[in-house]
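Why should sequence recovery work at all? Because a backbone constrains its sequence more than one might expect. Tight turns favour small or flexible residues, buried strands favour hydrophobic ones, and helices have their own preferences. The token representation captures these environments compactly. In the example below, the structure is given first.
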């Protein structure tokens, strides 16, 4: 049952090199729009929307902005005629690393140009749809904090049919990440809360089926800069890659 996420390791190592930028108001608001569009515009009956709203509130986004984003997703907001489109971009970073980008944009030409520029300036190239997505699988992830009692966590995972978990026990952070199906995410979250685990974050994440080890400092520099540049774009919601940094 126990397992680990190479991408989670990468993100923690990356934070040491260059602290990960927080999501912008635009990115968090657009996550609410997507959630409201993909389900009912009521957080009580839409788990994805409820999670997006919680993240927005944690970032101190005003309630008016949140309500406006929900209305846009539901199609009931009449003061804005822009149409947001969900697009997935795929490409290769330096060293043949696969990169998957989820975007929400009102101008696909602008977004494609920005993403292509990020790849080009960092030794990679933007590819065709489907060129790397087959290397990834989307899963539900619950991140918990604190000193973890592994036996108790294992019981929860068996009860909820979770796929795997990774215990994180570092000098500056203790916790765990638990992986499950998309449909099983809400149940896993609730059972963890019922068992008094401290849930920090819930998300859908693309997990690579295999990873490429990178130990060349020059390539590491380009890859981390590529990820940073992509994540800084307001149109980009999520970025995933299949590399593992080797010390």
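From this structural description, the recovered sequence reads:
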């Amino acid at each position: 049952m126990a397992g680990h996420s190479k991408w989670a390791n990468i993100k923690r190592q990356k934070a040491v090199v260059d602290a990960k930028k927080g999501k912008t108001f635009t990115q968090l608001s657009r996550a609410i729009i997507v959630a409201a569009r993909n389900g009912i515009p009521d957080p009580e009956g839409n788990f994805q929307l409820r999670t997006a709203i919680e993240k927005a509130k944690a970032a101190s986004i005003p309630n008016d902005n949140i309500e406006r984003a929900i209305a846009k997703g539901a199609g009931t907001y009449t003061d804005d005629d822009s149409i947001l489109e969900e697009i997935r971009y795929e490409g290769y970073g330096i060293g043949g690393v696969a990169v998957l980008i989820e975007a929400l944009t009102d101008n696909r030409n602008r977004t494609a140009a920005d993403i292509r520029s990020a790849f080009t300036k960092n030794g990679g190239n933007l590819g065709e749809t489907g060129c790397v997505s087959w290397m990834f699988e989307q899963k539900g992830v619950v991140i918990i904090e604190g000193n973890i009692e592994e036996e108790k966590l294992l019981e929860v995972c068996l009860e909820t049919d979770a796929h795997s978990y990774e215990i994180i026990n570092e000098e500056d952070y203790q916790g765990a990440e638990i992986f499950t199906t998309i449909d099983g995410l809400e149940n896993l979250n609730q059972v963890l809360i019922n068992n008094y685990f401290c849930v920090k974050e819930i998300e859908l994440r693309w997990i690579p089926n295999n990873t490429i080890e990178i130990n060349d400092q020059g390539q590491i520099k380009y890859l981390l800069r590529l990820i940073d540049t992509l994540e800084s774009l307001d149109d980009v919601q999520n970025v995933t890659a299949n590399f593992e940094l080797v010390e």
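A few observations help interpret the result. The two ends are 26 Å apart (CA to CA).
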